[in-house]
Amino acid sequence: MAAKILGFSVPVGGLWAEAIDGLRGSVPGSCQVLVGKDACLAAIGRIDVLVDGLLDSADLERAIKLQALFVPFVGVDHLPVAALRSRQVQVYNCHGNAFPVAERALALALASLGRIVEYHNDLRNGQWHGFAAGHGRRDYWQSLQGKRCAVLGCGAVGQALAGLLKAFGCPVAGFRRQANAPPPAGFDLISDRLDDILVDAKLIFITLPLTPATRGLLGRRELALAPGACLVNVGRGDVVDETALYESLCDGSLLGAALDVWYVYPPAGSTMARPARLPIDALPNVVLSPHVGGHSAEAAAGNIRQTAQNLRAWLRGEAVVNRVDLEAGY
Question: Are residues 236 and 305 in the same domain?
Answer without folding.
Answer: no
